[in-house]
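User: Structure please.
Assistant: Input sequence and predicted structure:
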Amino acid sequence: MSRAAIEAKLRQLGDRLRRAREELAVLDEQFLVFRDTADETRMQALVDETPLAAQEHREAQRHADAMFRSRERLAATVVELERAREDLLDRLVREGR
């Protein structure tokens, strides 16, 4: 691969990595809200001891769990993009020699 092609891929990868990190920051904030809601509904279910309160907690917990899984998938994508960037940088350095 030519130096110009590697540089172009690096730019594209850098853009993808930036967007993924921004999205991860948003998901982190959203996850905290979902987790806090699940915690609050858990406490309310313990206090109320009603089927409705328990159902609300289970639903809130499912949402928090789903958000956590989404966050973990995106975090893994960020790691993959960082590795790909490092590989391209290594290739660029080797091409420069």
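The chain has one domain: 3-96.
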